[in-house]
């Protein structure tokens, strides 16, 4: 087994005051750039093509590419459910309904711990190193990640020679490519070698360096993933040869390094593919292209997604500073471009980690350097995996939702065994985690793991996709997933003894507790569960109606909907998190699960449910702003839905606080941002990046509450700007320009046609032909809003929807494929 760990130490000498090739004040290019190499993984720069990921360190003397492939996981095909997994559920229900919550938790802690495993680990492949001589005293150093091209670059001078590296993970050729050049001929000399912590071997064969490996055993499951990495170097001039398990290149004019990685994974129950054959196939095709063609094809493919959205809120001379310095100074500087960069970096990460036909991004996307990753780098589906896809529809990346949908199909199969063995129920279910092998049983301690709502929440993405695209064929294909999820809950809902409501039991409000000083989470009828059930039953029924099927089943759903527990307002004027009024004003928990009904759902509205709207805001004010990275991303969305742009911006400022790096950290606890712009939970979790990107979009455009709301939560810090290409429900692509916080230009492209209802906070005074003030219900079905059941209002509840600005709704009759442009004052 190769167990080589190399610690890279590098000191730059004579760094120029202005880094070579750095940004200029007038350069609005979206780049993360630095004037020194990465000192650690959280300073390295991520590249990816959906399947292959690498972290680029940029050391002149010894480049390191830390390598990942999306299907390199520990263990193999398995189920983590047994016949004994749900044996204690009847007893738990009885104790919960008797109000014996501590006894129920104690029983769950003993009897409901996973009977087999808690899921497998997403693991690294290894590293590629490129060793260079004579570069220890490099100067005029510069490295960047250009997220407009998905291209990493390193430049420096050494011995009077200017060197350049270009590195990308090719979308079109499915290999990693490194291009090495110099400004004088015959100056490219280096050694390329690999290592891994996996059980593996390194050898030479014909014209390539081969690294093969077998992933680790974990929690009783034998490692079954075999991976193969193949490296080939093509040199122009000089000499390239394989020696002593390394590529040796001497005196070349330039060189291109190709890295191909593949595994034996076919699907969650089949690992019979030939990893070496797959890797060789990718490599053989890639080396036939010249470098310029390969780079151009890669950029063209990437930009078909990235260029759909433009966001400009100004640029200052802050762009002349390295990105880590900009992050450190953000809260006290005028740097609107950094917000736009962070927003687009989230889109870059989604494009780079979620391509159609691939796996969904994990807790860390496709970038992980640890054999035992934090939380196993699995799919945590009580918030994190869902958050990964919040930007997909609204930021015009709808196709990239596909890996999540494919995983849902798998889970709707594997989850049937769990529904039957654990609950004696029809349909399918998952709990709060899953992995490459699509496990669906409880994971980890019952305190967090006994939550049978993960598949429910994931299924909401199916309806969201339909609402944005109007794709009825898609709805037909995935309707069985929705129906199967609904069937499970129809079978397992229990009648609670007080109000005779139908509730899920046992469950929890994700990872939060309600008995002061004790770790008691087990409950029945939590608010989030009820909200999720309301959405699932409503949306499954609507899907069946649209498809003209299952009339009897629709009736069952309607009956159950009428018996679900309503949202309730508690003794502190808060939206209750639990069916019983157990909230505390000092609860600062990172999960704010009971506000799911506000975002990403649309059950809470300032106009339709003002009492709930006010109660939800009261809850969030009690919960406070400080949080982990992903939680702050969620809160940006909450405050945008509260139509409070300044508070949402305050959360963005909290998120963009530097964690680690050469600049003294101004944020040592809670969330923040690493020097490479990765979200700091800490440690790194990618959902924080995605959540904040979605939140920024939500500040600019909302379409969940019966209309397309233009600039609903514009902060004072963005007085002028423009955004192009955001998407609203109903298939509308919207461009907005504004000056001094007043809309000056609005363009609406209708993909589907139909009535477009626009909600605008400022008066429209010019060139509005074709618009009429809205009257009555919106006939466009994509703007349907739920009829939320009336809550139980406590005597302390008050109606005060503060911060809700006056707005006017206008109707626009549209035809599919046509754009409508308005100038506004």
Automatic annotation (TrEMBL):
Gene Ontology biological process terms from the UniProt entry: carbohydrate metabolic process
Residue stretches making up the Glycosyl hydrolase family 95 catalytic domain: 291-700
Gene3D superfamilies in UniProt: 1.50.10.10, Golgi alpha-mannosidase II (2.60.40.1180), putative glycoside hydrolase family protein from bacillus halodurans (2.70.98.50)
Coiled coil segments of this chain: none
Signal peptide: 1-21
Keywords: Signal
Ranges for domain Alpha fucosidase A-like C-terminal: 702-775
One Pfam family matching this protein: Glyco_hydro_95_cat
Protein name in the entry: Alpha-L-fucosidase
Annotated source species: Pedobacter heparinus (strain ATCC 13125 / DSM 2366 / CIP 104194 / JCM 7457 / NBRC 12017 / NCIMB 9290 / NRRL B-14731 / HIM 762-3)
């Amino acid at each position: 087994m190769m167990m080589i760990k190399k610690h890279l130490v590098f000191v730059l000498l004579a760094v120029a005051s202005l880094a070579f090739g750095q940004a200029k004040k007038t350069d609005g290019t979206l780049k993360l750039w630095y004037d020194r190499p990465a000192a650690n993984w959280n300073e390295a720069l991520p590249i990816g093509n959906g399947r292959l990921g690498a972290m680029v360190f940029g050391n002149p003397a010894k480049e390191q590419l830390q390598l990942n492939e999306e299907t390199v996981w520990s263990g193999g095909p398995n189920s983590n459910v047994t016949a004994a997994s749900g044996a204690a559920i009847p007893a738990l229900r009885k104790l919960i309904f008797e109000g014996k919550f501590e006894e129920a938790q104690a029983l769950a802690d003993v009897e409901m711990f996973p009977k087999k495993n808690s899921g497998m680990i997403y693991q690294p492949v290894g590293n590629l190193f490129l060793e260079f001589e004579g570069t220890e005293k490099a100067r005029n150093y510069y490295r960047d990640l250009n997220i407009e091209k998905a291209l990493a670059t390193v430049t420096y001078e050494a011995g009077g020679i200017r060197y350049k590296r270009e590195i990308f993970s090719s979308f079109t050729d499915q290999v990693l490519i490194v291009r090495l050049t110099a400004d004088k001929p015959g100056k490219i000399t280096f050694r390329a070698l690999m290592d891994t912590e996996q059980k593996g071997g390194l050898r030479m064969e014909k014209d390539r360096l081969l690294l093969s490996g077998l992933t680790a055993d974990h929690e009783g499951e034998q490692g079954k993933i075999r991976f193969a990495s193949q490296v080939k170097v093509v040199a122009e001039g000089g000499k390239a040869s394989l020696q002593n398990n390394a590529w040796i290149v001497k005196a070349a004019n330039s060189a291109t390094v190709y890295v191909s990685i593949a595994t034996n994974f076919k699907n969650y129950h089949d690992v019979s593919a030939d990893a070496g054959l797959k890797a060789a196939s990718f490599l053989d095709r890639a080396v036939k292209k010249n470098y310029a063609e390969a780079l151009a094809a890669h950029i063209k493919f990437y930009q078909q997604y990235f260029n759909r959205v433009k966001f400009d809120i100004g640029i200052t001379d802050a762009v002349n500073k390295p990105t880590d310095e900009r992050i450190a100074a953000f809260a006290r500087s005028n740097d609107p471009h950094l917000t736009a960069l962070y927003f687009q970096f989230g889109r870059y990460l989604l494009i780079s980690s979620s391509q159609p036909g691939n796996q969904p991004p994990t807790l860390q996307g496709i970038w992980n350097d640890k054999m035992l990753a934090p939380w196993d780098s699995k799919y945590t589906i009580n918030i994190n995996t869902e958050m990964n896809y919040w930007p997909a529809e609204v930021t015009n990346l709808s196709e990239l939702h596909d890996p999540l949908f494919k995983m849902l199909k798998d889970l709707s199969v594997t989850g049937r065994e769990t529904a039957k063995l654990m609950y004696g129920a029809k349909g399918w279910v998952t709990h709060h985690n899953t992995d490459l092998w699509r496990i669906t049983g409880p994971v980890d301690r019952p305190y967090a793991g006994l939550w049978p709502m993960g598949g429910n929440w994931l299924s909401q993405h199916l309806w969201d996709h339909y609402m944005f695209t109007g794709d009825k064929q898609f709805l037909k294909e995935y309707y069985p997933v929705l129906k199967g999820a609904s069937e499970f809950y129809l079978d397992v809902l229990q009648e609670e003894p007080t109000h005779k409501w139908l509730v899920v039991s046992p469950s929890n409000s994700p990872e939060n507790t309600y008995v002061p000083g004790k770790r008691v989470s087990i409950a029945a009828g939590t608010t989030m569960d009820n909200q999720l059930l309301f959405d699932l039953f409503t949306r499954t029924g609507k899907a069946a109606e649209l498809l003209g099927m299952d009339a009897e089943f629709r009736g069952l759903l309607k009956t159950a909907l009428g018996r679900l527990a309503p949202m309730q307002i508690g003794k502190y004027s808060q939206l209750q998190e639990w069916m019983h009024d157990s909230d505390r004003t000092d609860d600062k928990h990172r999960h704010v699960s009971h506000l799911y009904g506000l975002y990403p759902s649309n059950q809470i509205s300032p106009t339709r449910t003002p009492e709930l709207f006010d109660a939800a805001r009261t809850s969030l004010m009690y919960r406070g702003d400080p949080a982990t990275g992903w939680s702050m991303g969620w809160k940006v969305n909450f405050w945008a839905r509260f139509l409070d742009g300044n508070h949402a911006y305050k959360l963005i400022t909290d998120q963009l606080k530097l964690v680690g790096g050469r600049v003294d950290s101004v944020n040592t606890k809670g969330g923040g941002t690493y020097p490479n712009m990765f979200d700091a939970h800490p440690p790194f979790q990618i959902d924080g990046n995605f959540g904040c990107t979605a939140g920024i979009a939500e500040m600019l455009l909302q379409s969940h509450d019966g209309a397309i709301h233009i600039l609903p939560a514009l902060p004072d810090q963005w007085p002028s700007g423009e955004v192009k290409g955001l998407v609203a429900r109903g298939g509308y692509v919207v461009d907005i320009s504004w000056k001094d916080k007043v809309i000056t230009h609005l363009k609406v492209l209708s993909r589907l046609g139909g009535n477009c209802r626009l909600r605008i906070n400022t008066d429209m005074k010019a060139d509005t032909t074709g618009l009429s003030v809205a009257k009555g219900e919106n006939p466009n079905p994509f703007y349907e809003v739920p009829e939320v059941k009336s809550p139980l209002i406590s005597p302390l509840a008050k109606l005060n929807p503060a911060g809700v600005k006056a707005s006017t709704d206008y109707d626009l009759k549209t035809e599919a494929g046509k754009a409508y442009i308005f100038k506004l004052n």
